[in-house]
## 1
Amino acid sequence: MSPARRKESKQHEVGSATHARRVIVAADGRGWYVRFEGNRQLGRYSNVTQAIHGGRRLARQHKPAGLVVRYLDGEEEESWYGDREAP
């Protein structure tokens, strides 16, 4: 994803939650993986686009949930799926 496109979609909020699970999309030496924060990997993908689609699907299935994409350049993009909880 290009930096311009990343800025466009950065901080896209669909909702927010205080006690939501977070789905992490990140790269390692073997490609891109998807996992719940603090847990082992749930899926492995050959490119970032496929990994983001897999992460979104997982976040939507486990609402409320956040999706955090950690890019190779160190930037992070975070989106939330589900209802906001009152503070």
Note: Helices lie at 3-9, 48-61.
## 2
Amino acid sequence: MEKILELLNQIAQENNFPIFYHDKTREIWITGYRENTKFDLFVKLLRDGSYKFIYEIPQERKVALFLNEDSLLIRLNKIFGKEVVEDR
């Protein structure tokens, strides 16, 4: 969860998006505008170690379940066009 939070914090700071992280429930929320379209992003670390991911714009809502952190980092990289460095 630390890598995801670090990446989303970086994205939020660079784009001046508000970000909220709730440690007890392990949830991250970001909202803002990309390409003149409002979006909401929600990530939650589930008890089994998988990640619930919701990306919503006015026209559609995408919900996904990622089994590991690396898969979610790749998706976030595709959405925000960031370079994700893996340290394996």
Note: The chain has two helices and five strands.
